[in-house]
Amino acid sequence: MQDHIGGSGIWWIALALLTLAVFPGLIYLFFRLIILELKSKALTDDMTSLGAFKQKAINQQWENEEAVKTDMRVRYQFFRFVWPLSLLVFFNCVCFSIIWDIIRLNFDCSGTTVALLYSSKLLNAAELPMMAFLGVVIFNYGHLLRRLYVWDITTHVFWNALQRTWLVVGVAVVLAISMSFANDSKVDAVTGWVHWHAAFFGLGFVVNPVLQSLMERAQKGFQAKRPSVGELPLSLVQGISFWHEYRLGEEGIENVQNLATCDVIDLAITTRYNLRTLLDWVDQAILIHRMGEKAVKLREAGFISGAIDMAWAAPQNSGDDDDELPKQIAKTLEVEHIYIVTLMNSLYQDTQVHMIWDLWQSELDSNKKGKP
Question: What is the torsion angle, in degrees rounded to the nearest 10, for the CA atoms of residue 85, residue 90, residue 92 and residue 97?
Fold first, then answer.
């Protein structure tokens, strides 16, 4: 048994650690070779069923299904992923090689093994930071697998994993140095493991939110935070959760205004969300962007849920200047009637509203809603 552990067994461990080091690359290859085709087909089927290719604004950029698939293949080519993947795999290889040498040194039964790749002094100093590295690797790989499962692998995923890994290991190194944690100071090995190794392992899961909280408190304490115009959060849009906000933030959509003015087809290509879901979110966002939280009040009152409904009820579309709906909306919001009429007519003329209206139109009875 001793020969097995000290001989071939340690090389099997090396192979396992090497596989873990290159795991992000395997994730990308699986997505690129298998999942991307399925993602492309799902999107083009959605666009076809919604009549997207018949719209002039969309047809100018994506003429047909093959154009969308070609665009997606270009977006997910290896050269776009090479830097985050290469840096992440390289850093993983360095850290896992340190862990492998630590395993060889600490779990040798004969007591004759010496460090192979690094000095014994460096391995002793790196023990706690490598526990933090293992924690962040588990966090990163769990996130990678989740994103693969929902067909949503992007360069942001690997850049974020790289940034998180560097941050956690850097913080762990600083903490380990500041503690001056020497082996001969351990009174109880079990207590030391519980208090320090487990604590450093947990850094990979908590360091980001902890540092963010500290920065916010520091800005508040030193009054260093610049005053800004109030932004309408994405949480005002019905159906958008915390995780949706985080994912949309990766695409630069951080508030309602960004969502209201986004390219919905481009967003469907770069995210995992169904095109119909995105249309609903953008429809709501346009109205919230125009009306603020009054739009939420309308939705809760059961009047209007999005910009399409408001544009459909516009006097310019109905031809009835004495329609009761604008009056009821004005009464509910306690605003002037002319404000609601002007807003409705403005939405009726809005290009973005026209586009999402046309996309919805293919699934709605044309007798229920007239085309603008």
Answer: 160
